[in-house]
Specification:
Blueprint (H helix, E strand, L loop, with lengths): L1 E2 L1 H6 L4 H11 L9 E2 H8 L1 H7 L7 H13 L8 H14 L5 H18 L3 H9 L4 H15 L3 H16 L1
Antiparallel strand pairs: 1-2
Helix pairs in contact: 3-4, 5-6, 5-8, 5-9, 5-10, 6-7, 6-8, 7-8, 8-9, 9-10
Amino acid sequence: MKTTLNKIRSNSPCKSGWAKLMRHLGKTEADDVELSLLTILESNGLEDTLWCLRAVDGFEKEKRLMAVAFAREVQHLMADPRSIEALHVAERFANGEATEEELNAARDAAYNAASAAYAPYAAYAAARAASHDAAYAAAYAAAYAAAYAAAYDAIQQKQIEILKKFLS
């Protein structure tokens, strides 16, 4: 997956992340030269790379499947079956096997499960995986849930591996 500095800039990146990326690239101005997300990962790390997905045109299926893969890493923390079902529906939707109505219903059910449980952020990962801005939001929610499970570093390493698989 690729983007450009101009596309990233049009999404108002944070100043520190932008400066870090520009330094890494040895550039002083944004341009339209294709830029691999793997380069951004190398320069800025996982969180900034996931944020930059908003500056990638297309690849909606891959973004959603990546979000599901991230959420599945903390699926064992999901106590409510509505959360797990949201992952199944999000995956089916990405593969053209579920409707948008099914996706919305699964998202709503997962949010209700998360609200009922209040704190298990893993349930939010499932809900986000079924939402339209799934990749960034679910990855963030999955990492947040993992931190609560005292496994943030291991989960982040796994997310990097998953991200590299989708970007290759």
